[in-house]
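Quick sanity check, DUF4393 domain-containing protein:
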Amino acid sequence: MDLQPIIDAATAGRDIVRLLPAGSKELAEQIVGAGSDTIRRWRQDRERSNLEEIAKQVRAFTDGLPLDEKASSKVAEQIIDVAKDEDREELQKLWAAMVARLMTGQLRTIRPEWMEIIKSLQEIDVAILTVIPKISYTVSASGINVYNLFNSHINEIWPQSSFSDDDIDLAFVHLESIKLISKGKTSGLSAIGHIGKSPYQYTTLGRKIVEITSPPTKAD
C-alpha cells in the first residue's frame, strides 16, 4: 500500500517530520490520521495501532533533543510506509529509532537495501545484535557453550524471552547470510582463566544497521 496519499491527507502539505514530536494527539494524527475520514478508509485498525505505538516511541527517543528543521520528509515517509505493518515491540523500536534519528539530524538518508535487511530481522536477531558487544566470559576447564553464553546475556536484558539453542543457531546463520556479523578467527584454545569475547563480531554493514536502528544520542 502506498502511504503517500495518506500522508498528504494527514499533513495538508506540511512537513510530517517537523510535526512528529508535537505532542501525543498531534503526533498520532499526523502519522496515522486518526481524525481523517480519508485516512480511516485507507487504514485498518491494526495499522493505526502499530503507527501510534511507534509514534509514542519516537516521542520518547526525541524528548529533550534539538530537532533538525531540514530533515527529509521523503525518508520519513519511506520508513513509515514499512513500519505500519510491524506489531512486535522490539522491532517497532528499530523503526522508531530511525525516525527519531532522522528528526534529530543523526540520520540523513537510507539505502533501499538497508530497509530490506531491517525488514528481515526477527526478535532473536535483534537480541543477538544487541548483546554481541556485551559478551565476555572466563575460560574454564569445561569450555564454553556459545548458545548458553548468548542466551544468558539475552535473558538479562529480556527476562521474558525464551530462545532455544536452535533459535540462536538459526539466527547466527541468518545474520551471517545478510552480512551483519562474521565469526572471528581463533588461534586455538585459550588458557584457563583467560577472558574471552564474543566469537562473533559486526561487519561494517552490521555496525551501520545497529547504528541507524539505535535511539539518537544526546550531545555531551
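Posting the structure with no commentary besides this: The longest strand covers residues 136-138.
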